[in-house]
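ugh finaly. both done.
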Amino acid sequence: MSTIGIYMIRNKYLLDWARRIRQGGEEKPINITYDLVEPHILSTRAATFKLPEGSYWDDAGTHDRYHANNMRLSNGENVVDAKAYIDPDATINRCVVLGSVVLDAGVEFADAIISQQHDGMKITQM
């Protein structure tokens, strides 16, 4: 399963960034990786995690990218969390199922991220 990284950024840096945006002068689209993370990589302001040999990192910052990464890594097959239950008569195709999701008989999903939320199930259609 594709994993998601987390950026933890001090408020000071976010506020400085927001101030620059409000003042204008940003001629290119704003990107948290290029504008906030990369400038601090070589300083002591950023900590990184070294990936195991043979691994790689790809930005999966949107639902579309996350789904595409999982489909690429699974050769287009479903990616299903070990905590999920999918009835044998449920139909899913090219889906990523996260958390303790229960899919009953007769449900059909294709090209979706199906996840357990605190208030039920969330379906993000690709």
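ok and the 2nd:
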Amino acid sequence: MTKKTELHFILFKRLWELLKGPEFIGLTVSANLFIILNAAIFYFLEYEENYMIDSFLDAVWWSFTTITTVGYGDIVPVTTIGRIQGILMMLLGTGLFVTFTALFSNAILGRKVEGIQEKVKGLGKTLGTTRKEFQEEEKAIHTEVDQLRRLIAELEEIVNKRRK
């Protein structure tokens, strides 16, 4: 298997795991229910007021294009409450699709990030061990220096006694 084929296989596997995962399924079901619920509200509010709404499918179209912030402009709310609903849907839609993007990014890059985190932890342990070894060596050096100072002091005392 070539490196490129292997990478495609890994990518496909990660995306498949994402698509069958509970987070993605839950988010997708919630988003679709939100779109249908808002389409029903929009249809109820705008049907008799808005000449652009001929069927419930028109309301679904408006709801989907609004929540994805595409907003083709072929169907626009004419009532004040419909416009407020559109504004709220655009704001919530941005958050919703950022969440989808995060799920896909995590599926594609998540394991690489985990691998990097493991390497960083390993380096941290190595540095911790090295630091501990350094501190032990420093302590031993201080002990030896103290012993040398005592010996020098004793030698100076002996030399001073001989000079007298």
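summary for the 2nd one i guess: Residues 80-163 form the longest helix (84 residues).
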